[in-house]
Amino acid sequence: MAGLPRGSRRIAFLCLLVSCAAAALAARRAGASRPSHREDLDVSIGSGGSGSGGVGIGIGIGGGSSSPPSSSPSPSEPRACDFENERLYRAYLVIQQFRKTVTCDPMDITRSWSGTDLCSSYKGFFCDRPPNVTDRTIASVDFNGYMLRADSLQGFVNSLPDLALFHANSNDFGGTVPPLAGLQYFYELDLSNNRLAPATFPTDVLGLTNATFIDIRFNSFYGELPAGVFCKFPRVQAIFVNNNRFSGSLPDNIGQSPVNYLSLANNRFTGEIPTSIARNAGTLLEVLFLNNSLSGCLPYELGLLEKATVIDAGTNQLTGTIPASFACLRKVEQLNLADNLLYGEVPDALCRLAFDRLKNLTLSGNYFTSLGSCCWDLIKEGRLTVDRNCIQWAPNQRSHDECAKFQQRPKSCPVSTYLPCRAKYGGSSEPADAAVEEEEEHAAVEHRYRTYSALHP
Ligand SMILES: *[C@@H]1O[C@H](CO)[C@@H](O)[C@H](O)[C@H]1NC(C)=O
Ligand SMILES: *[C@@H]1O[C@H](CO)[C@@H](O)[C@H](O)[C@H]1NC(C)=O
Ligand SMILES: *[C@@H]1O[C@H](CO)[C@@H](O)[C@H](O)[C@H]1NC(C)=O
Ligand SMILES: *[C@@H]1O[C@H](CO)[C@@H](O)[C@H](O)[C@H]1NC(C)=O
């Protein structure tokens, strides 16, 4: 507080009153009160670094610090020797520079950004030691939900050389994605739900070879997704690009990526689901193709994703019958194929997955004409939805005319009957599984799955 001149404090206050009030309201409505719902990705550095309580600040180097840290900061600019180490002093200069560019701060975050105690008192900044470095330094910046506004991040994020994480969900940052590839320790990028200038996929991001987490959802990126997204990040766990304006076909090399959580939802992708997706079988846990304009036949290869718990290809223009391979999705819990152009019989073997993990099979808004016998039970249990199809005896079906018209369309998809796994019949509900499911049932669906969580700003 003391570091902030009177004049600028008044300006900040005015800004809060005039322009931030609406932003604050909007952001609160958008749920910014649960700021970092994906911190549980288990990839955060240390425990945030701030726990160590500012030991040793101001001692050592030079010994020129006359006042104890933060309790009574001197009104003059601190000097290099007032800081725990040189790295923190340089970070201090960068942060002060950035602070001047913050034009909205409804939660009064930047007020804490003064004095020499970066590691304990600066909100949003966390210290840690990079590998083989003895000095503590700014390793992580987490602004999730802070609603800060600045026209650019250039000269800030990219000027903190030891940064490993930058999380800025639900702020109001504009401009382009800063060049981060020079940051040797960097691995987690979250620029979701900001006001970044409409642009194609930021190619500089492809230089983040050690990235584990790439989240640019809820921005205005457009154009094709570069193939590099699926081959430049050998350690990536999550890629969230949903709710942008990406278009064109999905890169053929999608299967090259070791990604666990992939959300492509709510864009304008066209073309087929690349069959290389089969190569993700060992790693892919959740994938959302939801709400694009994908077409072509529902690929056999999706059925090979033996580890996947969520497969959502709803609201596209996919056609064909459900390949027999889908009966091999032994881990799948949420399977959504609703609102496509699928037809034929819903295989009994698919519905039998409910004896394994399947909790929610959504097939509404297609042109299916019949159901395997187990499927009827699932409808009764509320685990299968087949509204708006062409299934005799099922409730809420399309009109006879609508169904007849679709029937007449030429159909070119192969009927895929090959079963790439050993067939399994009957229930196998192990008691352990049942207990786990019971427990999970209490958590809301959208919070249990990382990709579905990513559909909220
Ligand atoms: C750290 O130091 C050790 C031993 O000196 C070395 O083997 C290792 O490669 C270094 N790691 C990094 C990231 O520099
Ligand atoms: C990725 O990490 C490795 C070792 O941890 C390091 O040598 C390399 O420079 C890093 N890559 C980038 C682009 O920083
Ligand atoms: C579906 O995607 C379109 C186009 O990207 C978007 O305008 C629309 O809001 C999305 N629908 C939902 C329910 O998110
Ligand atoms: C089942 O999945 C559909 C499609 O994703 C979703 O709209 C619905 O809320 C889910 N229902 C339950 C009970 O999880």
Automatic annotation (TrEMBL):
Name of a matching Pfam family: LRR_1
Stored InterPro entries: Leu-rich_rpt, LRR_dom_sf, LRR_extensin-like_regulator
N-terminal signal peptide: 1-26
Stored SUPFAM superfamilies: L domain-like
Keywords for the protein's UniProt record, in alphabetical order: Repeat, Secreted, Signal
Keyword Heme: no
Region (Disordered): 57-79
UniProt key word Repeat: yes
Record localization: Secreted
Cellular component aspect of the GO annotation: extracellular region
Protein name per Swiss-Prot or TrEMBL: Leucine-rich repeat-containing N-terminal plant-type domain-containing protein
